[in-house]
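Contributing new complexes? Match this layout with alpha-D-glucopyranose.
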Amino acid sequence: MKKILFAGAEAMPFAATGGLGDVLGSLPAALSDTGECDVRVVLPLYESVSEDFRRKMKQEAVFNVRLSWREQYCGVWSLVRNGVTYYFLDNEYYFRRPSLYGYFDDGERYAYYCMAVMELMWRLGFYPDILHAHDWQAALTVVYLNCLYRSRPGYENIRTVFTIHNIEYQGQYDFSILGDVFALGENEHTLMENDGCINLMKAAIECADRVTTVSPRYAEEIRTAEYAHGLESSLNRNAQKLCGILNGIDYEYYDPEHDPAIAAPFTRRALSGKVRDKAAMQKECGLSVRRDVPMLSVISRLAAHKGLDLVEGCIDAIVSQNDIQFIILGRGEDRYERFFTDLQNRYPDRVRALIAYDRDLSKRVYAATDIFLMPSRTEPCGLSQMIASRYGAIPVVRETGGLFDSIKPYWSDEKGIHGNGFTFSGYRCEELRERTEAAISLWRDVPARRKLLSRIMQTDFSWNSSAGSYLELYRGL
Ligand code: GLC
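Output block (do not edit by hand):
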Protein backbone atom coordinates (compact mmCIF):
# COMPACT_ATOMS: atom_id res chain seq x y z
CA MET A 1 0.00 0.00 0.00
CA LYS A 2 1.27 3.39 -0.90
CA LYS A 3 1.54 5.85 1.97
CA ILE A 4 0.35 9.32 1.05
CA LEU A 5 0.55 12.36 3.31
CA PHE A 6 -1.53 15.40 2.36
CA ALA A 7 -0.58 18.82 3.68
CA GLY A 8 -2.94 21.73 3.19
CA ALA A 9 -4.61 24.51 5.10
CA GLU A 10 -8.25 23.43 5.08
CA ALA A 11 -10.50 20.41 4.69
CA MET A 12 -14.21 19.82 4.91
CA PRO A 13 -15.96 19.17 7.23
CA PHE A 14 -13.43 20.37 9.80
CA ALA A 15 -12.56 23.84 8.57
CA ALA A 16 -13.11 25.31 5.13
CA THR A 17 -13.52 28.63 3.37
CA GLY A 18 -13.56 27.54 -0.25
CA GLY A 19 -12.78 25.00 -2.95
CA LEU A 20 -9.51 23.84 -1.41
CA GLY A 21 -11.51 22.67 1.59
CA ASP A 22 -13.86 20.71 -0.65
CA VAL A 23 -10.99 18.97 -2.40
CA LEU A 24 -9.02 18.09 0.74
CA GLY A 25 -12.29 16.91 2.24
CA SER A 26 -13.08 14.48 -0.57
CA LEU A 27 -10.03 13.49 -2.64
CA PRO A 28 -8.26 11.66 0.24
CA ALA A 29 -11.32 9.46 0.82
CA ALA A 30 -11.63 8.76 -2.90
CA LEU A 31 -7.97 7.68 -2.97
CA SER A 32 -8.41 5.54 0.09
CA ASP A 33 -11.49 3.88 -1.50
CA THR A 34 -9.31 2.54 -4.29
CA GLY A 35 -7.74 0.25 -1.70
CA GLU A 36 -4.31 1.18 -2.97
CA CYS A 37 -3.28 3.84 -0.48
CA ASP A 38 -3.05 4.67 3.16
CA VAL A 39 -3.96 8.36 3.04
CA ARG A 40 -3.38 10.77 5.89
CA VAL A 41 -3.99 14.50 6.05
CA VAL A 42 -2.38 17.09 8.35
CA LEU A 43 -4.38 20.19 9.30
CA PRO A 44 -4.01 22.98 11.83
CA LEU A 45 -6.38 22.59 14.75
CA TYR A 46 -8.32 25.78 14.10
CA GLU A 47 -10.71 27.23 16.61
CA SER A 48 -13.57 26.47 14.22
CA VAL A 49 -13.05 22.69 14.41
CA SER A 50 -16.17 21.66 16.28
CA GLU A 51 -16.33 20.25 19.79
CA ASP A 52 -17.99 17.19 18.30
CA PHE A 53 -14.89 16.30 16.33
CA ARG A 54 -12.56 17.26 19.15
CA ARG A 55 -14.22 14.80 21.48
CA LYS A 56 -13.49 11.98 19.05
CA MET A 57 -9.81 12.82 18.65
CA LYS A 58 -6.97 10.81 20.08
CA GLN A 59 -3.73 12.36 21.23
CA GLU A 60 -0.78 11.02 19.25
CA ALA A 61 2.22 13.06 20.37
CA VAL A 62 3.45 16.24 21.96
CA PHE A 63 6.69 17.92 20.96
CA ASN A 64 8.29 21.28 20.33
CA VAL A 65 8.79 22.70 16.87
CA ARG A 66 11.86 24.84 16.27
CA LEU A 67 11.62 27.66 13.81
CA SER A 68 14.76 29.76 13.87
CA TRP A 69 14.98 31.02 17.49
CA ARG A 70 11.40 30.03 18.33
CA GLU A 71 10.38 26.90 20.20
CA GLN A 72 6.69 26.29 19.84
CA TYR A 73 4.47 23.68 21.39
CA CYS A 74 2.81 21.17 19.07
CA GLY A 75 0.18 18.66 20.12
CA VAL A 76 -0.85 16.09 17.50
CA TRP A 77 -4.40 14.77 17.60
CA SER A 78 -5.90 12.25 15.22
CA LEU A 79 -9.29 11.24 13.92
CA VAL A 80 -10.23 8.64 11.31
CA ARG A 81 -12.98 9.54 8.86
CA ASN A 82 -14.03 7.66 5.70
CA GLY A 83 -10.88 5.56 5.86
CA VAL A 84 -8.59 8.60 6.08
CA THR A 85 -6.51 9.54 9.12
CA TYR A 86 -6.59 13.26 9.86
CA TYR A 87 -3.90 14.74 12.07
CA PHE A 88 -4.57 18.07 13.76
CA LEU A 89 -1.74 20.27 14.95
CA ASP A 90 -2.61 21.98 18.18
CA ASN A 91 -0.98 25.30 18.96
CA GLU A 92 -3.33 27.85 20.46
CA TYR A 93 -1.05 30.81 19.87
CA TYR A 94 -1.14 30.26 16.10
CA PHE A 95 -4.49 28.64 15.45
CA ARG A 96 -6.91 29.62 18.17
CA ARG A 97 -8.24 32.57 16.21
CA PRO A 98 -11.69 33.35 14.80
CA SER A 99 -10.68 32.99 11.12
CA LEU A 100 -8.45 30.60 9.25
CA TYR A 101 -6.40 33.26 7.44
CA GLY A 102 -5.88 36.95 7.10
CA TYR A 103 -3.49 37.62 9.99
CA PHE A 104 -0.32 39.71 9.93
CA ASP A 105 1.72 36.64 10.84
CA ASP A 106 0.23 34.13 8.35
CA GLY A 107 3.73 33.53 6.97
CA GLU A 108 4.99 32.52 10.40
CA ARG A 109 1.85 30.48 11.17
CA TYR A 110 2.21 28.33 8.07
CA ALA A 111 5.98 28.07 8.38
CA TYR A 112 5.32 26.61 11.81
CA TYR A 113 2.68 24.33 10.31
CA CYS A 114 5.07 23.07 7.61
CA MET A 115 7.92 22.47 10.01
CA ALA A 116 5.51 20.59 12.30
CA VAL A 117 4.47 18.38 9.36
CA MET A 118 8.13 17.48 8.80
CA GLU A 119 8.70 16.79 12.50
CA LEU A 120 5.55 14.73 12.78
CA MET A 121 6.95 12.13 10.38
CA TRP A 122 9.73 10.94 12.63
CA ARG A 123 7.79 11.56 15.83
CA LEU A 124 4.98 9.27 14.64
CA GLY A 125 7.23 6.98 12.60
CA PHE A 126 5.10 7.65 9.53
CA TYR A 127 7.30 8.27 6.50
CA PRO A 128 5.09 8.67 3.46
CA ASP A 129 6.02 7.48 -0.02
CA ILE A 130 4.43 10.66 -1.32
CA LEU A 131 4.17 14.02 0.37
CA HIS A 132 1.38 15.86 -1.43
CA ALA A 133 1.29 19.57 -0.56
CA HIS A 134 -1.46 21.99 -1.56
CA ASP A 135 -1.20 25.73 -2.21
CA TRP A 136 1.16 28.26 -0.67
CA GLN A 137 0.36 27.48 2.95
CA ALA A 138 1.84 24.00 2.59
CA ALA A 139 4.57 24.93 0.10
CA LEU A 140 7.33 25.00 2.69
CA THR A 141 6.91 21.28 3.48
CA VAL A 142 8.43 20.47 0.10
CA VAL A 143 11.16 23.07 0.61
CA TYR A 144 12.02 21.90 4.13
CA LEU A 145 12.16 18.31 2.92
CA ASN A 146 14.71 19.18 0.24
CA CYS A 147 16.72 21.73 2.17
CA LEU A 148 16.64 20.50 5.77
CA TYR A 149 15.42 16.90 6.10
CA ARG A 150 16.53 15.02 2.99
CA SER A 151 19.57 13.35 4.51
CA ARG A 152 17.83 12.15 7.64
CA PRO A 153 16.93 8.47 7.88
CA GLY A 154 13.38 7.83 6.67
CA TYR A 155 13.23 11.02 4.62
CA GLU A 156 15.58 10.00 1.82
CA ASN A 157 13.02 8.46 -0.50
CA ILE A 158 9.96 10.62 0.00
CA ARG A 159 8.63 11.86 -3.35
CA THR A 160 6.71 15.12 -3.58
CA VAL A 161 3.73 16.53 -5.43
CA PHE A 162 2.75 20.17 -5.17
CA THR A 163 -0.76 21.17 -6.29
CA ILE A 164 -1.69 24.71 -7.24
CA HIS A 165 -5.35 25.40 -6.53
CA ASN A 166 -5.07 29.07 -7.25
CA ILE A 167 -1.95 30.80 -8.46
CA GLU A 168 -3.17 34.19 -7.33
CA TYR A 169 -2.13 33.48 -3.76
CA GLN A 170 1.58 32.69 -3.63
CA GLY A 171 2.85 33.59 -0.17
CA GLN A 172 5.09 36.57 -0.90
CA TYR A 173 7.33 38.09 1.75
CA ASP A 174 10.22 40.45 2.20
CA PHE A 175 13.66 38.88 2.25
CA SER A 176 14.40 40.34 5.67
CA ILE A 177 12.44 37.47 7.26
CA LEU A 178 14.09 34.58 5.37
CA GLY A 179 16.08 33.42 8.38
CA ASP A 180 14.05 34.81 11.21
CA VAL A 181 10.62 33.49 10.15
CA PHE A 182 11.27 30.81 7.56
CA ALA A 183 14.42 29.39 9.16
CA LEU A 184 16.27 29.30 5.83
CA GLY A 185 19.76 30.58 5.05
CA GLU A 186 21.28 32.70 2.32
CA ASN A 187 22.08 29.48 0.42
CA GLU A 188 18.39 29.25 -0.33
CA HIS A 189 18.11 32.81 -1.58
CA THR A 190 17.93 31.92 -5.28
CA LEU A 191 15.49 29.10 -4.69
CA MET A 192 13.10 31.28 -2.68
CA GLU A 193 13.31 34.38 -4.86
CA ASN A 194 10.82 35.65 -7.44
CA ASP A 195 10.55 39.29 -8.53
CA GLY A 196 12.77 40.40 -5.67
CA CYS A 197 10.85 38.84 -2.83
CA ILE A 198 10.39 35.51 -1.10
CA ASN A 199 7.81 33.48 -2.96
CA LEU A 200 6.78 30.25 -1.24
CA MET A 201 4.80 28.88 -4.16
CA LYS A 202 7.69 29.43 -6.55
CA ALA A 203 10.07 27.58 -4.23
CA ALA A 204 7.70 24.61 -4.06
CA ILE A 205 7.39 24.55 -7.86
CA GLU A 206 11.18 24.32 -8.05
CA CYS A 207 11.52 21.66 -5.33
CA ALA A 208 8.61 19.30 -6.00
CA ASP A 209 9.01 16.17 -8.13
CA ARG A 210 5.65 16.89 -9.78
CA VAL A 211 3.56 20.03 -9.95
CA THR A 212 -0.12 19.72 -10.67
CA THR A 213 -2.99 22.06 -10.97
CA VAL A 214 -6.71 21.43 -10.84
CA SER A 215 -7.61 21.31 -14.53
CA PRO A 216 -5.72 20.57 -17.77
CA ARG A 217 -6.68 23.93 -19.27
CA TYR A 218 -5.39 25.88 -16.27
CA ALA A 219 -2.10 23.96 -16.50
CA GLU A 220 -1.67 25.51 -19.94
CA GLU A 221 -2.95 28.94 -18.97
CA ILE A 222 -0.55 29.40 -16.05
CA ARG A 223 2.42 29.10 -18.38
CA THR A 224 1.45 32.48 -19.80
CA ALA A 225 1.96 35.90 -18.24
CA GLU A 226 -1.75 36.65 -18.48
CA TYR A 227 -2.60 33.98 -15.91
CA ALA A 228 0.58 33.25 -13.98
CA HIS A 229 0.78 36.30 -11.71
CA GLY A 230 4.54 36.42 -12.26
CA LEU A 231 5.28 32.68 -12.03
CA GLU A 232 5.29 31.93 -15.77
CA SER A 233 9.06 31.59 -16.12
CA SER A 234 9.30 29.27 -13.15
CA LEU A 235 6.46 27.14 -14.56
CA ASN A 236 7.93 27.07 -18.04
CA ARG A 237 11.29 26.06 -16.66
CA ASN A 238 9.54 23.20 -14.85
CA ALA A 239 7.04 22.40 -17.59
CA GLN A 240 8.11 18.77 -17.81
CA LYS A 241 6.79 18.19 -14.29
CA LEU A 242 3.54 20.11 -14.70
CA CYS A 243 0.14 18.60 -15.46
CA GLY A 244 -3.54 19.33 -14.81
CA ILE A 245 -6.03 16.95 -13.21
CA LEU A 246 -9.65 18.02 -13.06
CA ASN A 247 -11.20 18.05 -9.59
CA GLY A 248 -14.24 16.03 -8.71
CA ILE A 249 -16.91 16.79 -6.13
CA ASP A 250 -18.11 14.73 -3.21
CA TYR A 251 -21.07 12.81 -4.64
CA GLU A 252 -22.39 11.88 -1.23
CA TYR A 253 -22.32 15.33 0.23
CA TYR A 254 -23.72 16.87 -2.94
CA ASP A 255 -26.58 14.51 -3.66
CA PRO A 256 -30.02 15.99 -4.36
CA GLU A 257 -31.59 12.60 -3.80
CA HIS A 258 -30.40 12.36 -0.19
CA ASP A 259 -29.57 15.89 0.86
CA PRO A 260 -30.98 16.75 4.28
CA ALA A 261 -30.25 20.44 3.65
CA ILE A 262 -32.83 20.86 0.88
CA ALA A 263 -36.62 20.99 1.10
CA ALA A 264 -37.42 18.12 -1.27
CA PRO A 265 -35.25 15.41 -2.83
CA PHE A 266 -35.09 14.92 -6.58
CA THR A 267 -33.29 12.96 -9.30
CA ARG A 268 -32.70 13.25 -13.01
CA ARG A 269 -35.78 11.14 -13.69
CA ALA A 270 -38.05 12.67 -11.04
CA LEU A 271 -37.60 16.42 -11.03
CA SER A 272 -40.78 17.38 -9.20
CA GLY A 273 -38.80 17.80 -5.98
CA LYS A 274 -36.78 20.51 -7.67
CA VAL A 275 -39.96 22.47 -8.33
CA ARG A 276 -40.73 22.28 -4.62
CA ASP A 277 -37.19 23.33 -3.76
CA LYS A 278 -37.64 26.40 -5.90
CA ALA A 279 -40.93 27.24 -4.25
CA ALA A 280 -39.35 26.80 -0.82
CA MET A 281 -36.51 29.15 -1.71
CA GLN A 282 -38.88 31.73 -3.18
CA LYS A 283 -40.83 31.63 0.03
CA GLU A 284 -37.72 31.72 2.20
CA CYS A 285 -36.49 34.92 0.63
CA GLY A 286 -39.84 36.54 0.00
CA LEU A 287 -40.00 36.31 -3.78
CA SER A 288 -43.29 35.46 -5.42
CA VAL A 289 -43.80 31.70 -5.59
CA ARG A 290 -43.99 30.95 -9.32
CA ARG A 291 -42.81 27.86 -11.11
CA ASP A 292 -43.05 29.43 -14.57
CA VAL A 293 -40.29 31.96 -13.90
CA PRO A 294 -36.69 30.80 -14.24
CA MET A 295 -34.49 31.24 -11.19
CA LEU A 296 -31.02 32.51 -12.07
CA SER A 297 -28.24 32.50 -9.53
CA VAL A 298 -24.63 33.23 -8.76
CA ILE A 299 -23.03 31.47 -5.81
CA SER A 300 -19.51 32.71 -5.38
CA ARG A 301 -16.87 34.34 -3.30
CA LEU A 302 -17.32 37.99 -4.28
CA ALA A 303 -13.84 38.45 -5.74
CA ALA A 304 -12.83 40.14 -8.97
CA HIS A 305 -11.50 37.01 -10.70
CA LYS A 306 -14.96 35.43 -10.46
CA GLY A 307 -16.05 37.75 -13.29
CA LEU A 308 -18.49 39.74 -11.21
CA ASP A 309 -17.88 42.90 -13.18
CA LEU A 310 -19.39 41.10 -16.17
CA VAL A 311 -22.46 40.35 -14.09
CA GLU A 312 -22.50 43.97 -12.93
CA GLY A 313 -22.38 45.10 -16.54
CA CYS A 314 -25.42 43.16 -17.79
CA ILE A 315 -27.58 42.06 -14.90
CA ASP A 316 -29.75 45.19 -14.98
CA ALA A 317 -30.62 44.51 -18.61
CA ILE A 318 -31.26 40.82 -17.98
CA VAL A 319 -33.45 41.45 -14.95
CA SER A 320 -35.44 44.31 -16.44
CA GLN A 321 -36.04 42.73 -19.84
CA ASN A 322 -36.83 39.14 -18.91
CA ASP A 323 -39.37 37.66 -16.58
CA ILE A 324 -36.89 36.03 -14.22
CA GLN A 325 -35.76 35.92 -10.61
CA PHE A 326 -32.14 36.31 -9.57
CA ILE A 327 -30.33 35.33 -6.38
CA ILE A 328 -26.73 36.10 -5.54
CA LEU A 329 -25.19 34.29 -2.59
CA GLY A 330 -21.72 35.12 -1.36
CA ARG A 331 -19.49 37.35 0.63
CA GLY A 332 -16.36 39.26 -0.28
CA GLU A 333 -15.25 42.59 -1.63
CA ASP A 334 -17.28 45.56 -0.44
CA ARG A 335 -17.92 46.96 -3.86
CA TYR A 336 -19.73 43.80 -4.98
CA GLU A 337 -21.64 43.41 -1.74
CA ARG A 338 -22.84 46.98 -2.19
CA PHE A 339 -23.65 46.57 -5.86
CA PHE A 340 -25.81 43.48 -5.36
CA THR A 341 -27.55 44.86 -2.28
CA ASP A 342 -28.34 47.92 -4.32
CA LEU A 343 -29.60 45.73 -7.19
CA GLN A 344 -32.00 44.07 -4.77
CA ASN A 345 -33.23 47.51 -3.71
CA ARG A 346 -33.87 48.41 -7.32
CA TYR A 347 -35.70 45.16 -8.13
CA PRO A 348 -37.20 44.11 -4.80
CA ASP A 349 -39.68 41.73 -6.44
CA ARG A 350 -37.05 39.93 -8.56
CA VAL A 351 -33.63 40.03 -6.91
CA ARG A 352 -32.22 38.79 -3.61
CA ALA A 353 -28.69 39.51 -2.45
CA LEU A 354 -27.78 37.02 0.25
CA ILE A 355 -24.50 38.32 1.62
CA ALA A 356 -23.30 35.23 3.45
CA TYR A 357 -21.07 32.17 3.37
CA ASP A 358 -23.38 29.38 4.38
CA ARG A 359 -23.05 25.87 2.99
CA ASP A 360 -26.58 24.68 3.75
CA LEU A 361 -28.10 27.82 2.33
CA SER A 362 -25.95 27.41 -0.78
CA LYS A 363 -27.37 23.92 -1.29
CA ARG A 364 -30.91 25.26 -1.02
CA VAL A 365 -30.07 27.87 -3.64
CA TYR A 366 -28.44 25.30 -5.96
CA ALA A 367 -31.52 23.11 -5.66
CA ALA A 368 -33.78 26.06 -6.52
CA THR A 369 -31.67 27.29 -9.42
CA ASP A 370 -32.64 26.83 -13.07
CA ILE A 371 -29.73 28.73 -14.62
CA PHE A 372 -26.38 29.13 -12.91
CA LEU A 373 -24.00 31.90 -13.95
CA MET A 374 -20.23 31.54 -13.59
CA PRO A 375 -18.45 33.98 -15.88
CA SER A 376 -15.03 33.82 -14.16
CA ARG A 377 -12.14 35.78 -15.56
CA THR A 378 -9.89 32.95 -14.36
CA GLU A 379 -10.94 29.66 -12.79
CA PRO A 380 -8.38 27.01 -11.83
CA CYS A 381 -11.10 24.39 -11.68
CA GLY A 382 -14.31 25.68 -10.18
CA LEU A 383 -16.59 23.36 -8.30
CA SER A 384 -19.80 25.40 -8.34
CA GLN A 385 -20.56 24.63 -11.98
CA MET A 386 -20.32 20.92 -11.10
CA ILE A 387 -22.47 21.23 -8.00
CA ALA A 388 -25.04 23.30 -9.92
CA SER A 389 -25.13 20.63 -12.65
CA ARG A 390 -25.65 17.91 -10.09
CA TYR A 391 -28.57 19.91 -8.67
CA GLY A 392 -30.22 20.25 -12.06
CA ALA A 393 -29.25 23.80 -13.02
CA ILE A 394 -28.09 24.80 -16.49
CA PRO A 395 -24.60 26.32 -16.24
CA VAL A 396 -23.62 29.43 -18.18
CA VAL A 397 -19.83 29.72 -17.97
CA ARG A 398 -16.88 31.47 -19.48
CA GLU A 399 -14.45 29.15 -21.29
CA THR A 400 -11.49 29.35 -18.95
CA GLY A 401 -9.59 26.85 -16.78
CA GLY A 402 -11.72 24.08 -15.33
CA LEU A 403 -14.90 25.70 -16.65
CA PHE A 404 -13.60 25.03 -20.16
CA ASP A 405 -12.77 21.42 -19.24
CA SER A 406 -16.05 20.61 -17.50
CA ILE A 407 -18.77 22.45 -19.46
CA LYS A 408 -19.12 21.95 -23.20
CA PRO A 409 -21.37 24.17 -25.33
CA TYR A 410 -24.90 23.01 -26.00
CA TRP A 411 -26.13 22.52 -29.55
CA SER A 412 -28.56 20.20 -31.22
CA ASP A 413 -28.96 18.54 -34.61
CA GLU A 414 -30.95 15.64 -36.05
CA LYS A 415 -28.79 13.21 -34.05
CA GLY A 416 -29.75 14.79 -30.76
CA ILE A 417 -28.25 17.24 -28.34
CA HIS A 418 -24.62 17.89 -27.51
CA GLY A 419 -22.84 19.61 -24.67
CA ASN A 420 -23.90 20.28 -21.11
CA GLY A 421 -24.28 24.03 -20.76
CA PHE A 422 -23.86 27.45 -22.31
CA THR A 423 -20.40 28.85 -22.78
CA PHE A 424 -18.71 31.96 -24.14
CA SER A 425 -15.10 32.93 -24.58
CA GLY A 426 -14.63 36.70 -24.66
CA TYR A 427 -14.53 38.55 -21.38
CA ARG A 428 -17.45 40.74 -22.42
CA CYS A 429 -20.79 41.62 -20.84
CA GLU A 430 -22.55 41.23 -24.18
CA GLU A 431 -21.45 37.61 -24.46
CA LEU A 432 -22.58 36.77 -20.94
CA ARG A 433 -25.91 38.44 -21.57
CA GLU A 434 -26.44 36.74 -24.94
CA ARG A 435 -25.67 33.25 -23.57
CA THR A 436 -27.77 33.84 -20.46
CA GLU A 437 -30.75 34.85 -22.56
CA ALA A 438 -30.18 31.81 -24.80
CA ALA A 439 -30.32 29.66 -21.67
CA ILE A 440 -33.53 31.40 -20.59
CA SER A 441 -35.15 30.66 -23.99
CA LEU A 442 -34.09 27.06 -23.82
CA TRP A 443 -35.50 26.78 -20.30
CA ARG A 444 -38.84 28.02 -21.56
CA ASP A 445 -38.92 25.25 -24.16
CA VAL A 446 -39.97 22.44 -21.84
CA PRO A 447 -39.11 19.36 -23.95
CA ALA A 448 -35.70 20.80 -24.86
CA ARG A 449 -35.09 21.75 -21.24
CA ARG A 450 -35.88 18.21 -20.08
CA LYS A 451 -33.47 16.69 -22.55
CA LEU A 452 -30.65 19.03 -21.68
CA LEU A 453 -31.17 18.66 -17.92
CA SER A 454 -31.08 14.92 -18.21
CA ARG A 455 -27.73 15.18 -19.98
CA ILE A 456 -26.38 17.71 -17.52
CA MET A 457 -27.34 15.62 -14.53
CA GLN A 458 -25.76 12.53 -16.07
CA THR A 459 -22.36 14.14 -16.52
CA ASP A 460 -19.94 12.44 -14.13
CA PHE A 461 -18.26 14.98 -11.87
CA SER A 462 -17.40 12.49 -9.15
CA TRP A 463 -13.81 11.67 -8.19
CA ASN A 464 -14.02 8.36 -10.08
CA SER A 465 -11.73 9.20 -12.93
CA SER A 466 -9.56 11.89 -11.32
CA ALA A 467 -8.64 9.82 -8.27
CA GLY A 468 -7.26 7.34 -10.80
CA SER A 469 -5.19 10.06 -12.43
CA TYR A 470 -3.60 10.92 -9.08
CA LEU A 471 -2.84 7.26 -8.43
CA GLU A 472 -1.13 7.05 -11.77
CA LEU A 473 0.90 10.13 -10.98
CA TYR A 474 1.96 8.65 -7.63
CA ARG A 475 2.89 5.35 -9.27
CA GLY A 476 5.03 7.20 -11.79
CA LEU A 477 7.09 8.55 -8.89
C1 GLC B 1 -9.53 27.27 -5.67
C2 GLC B 1 -9.85 27.67 -7.10
C3 GLC B 1 -11.02 26.88 -7.68
C4 GLC B 1 -10.80 25.38 -7.44
C5 GLC B 1 -10.53 25.12 -5.96
C6 GLC B 1 -10.27 23.68 -5.64
O1 GLC B 1 -10.54 27.71 -4.81
O2 GLC B 1 -10.11 29.06 -7.20
O3 GLC B 1 -11.17 27.11 -9.05
O4 GLC B 1 -11.93 24.66 -7.84
O5 GLC B 1 -9.41 25.86 -5.53
O6 GLC B 1 -9.17 23.14 -6.34
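Reviewers usually confirm one structural detail per submission. For this one: The mean pLDDT is 97.
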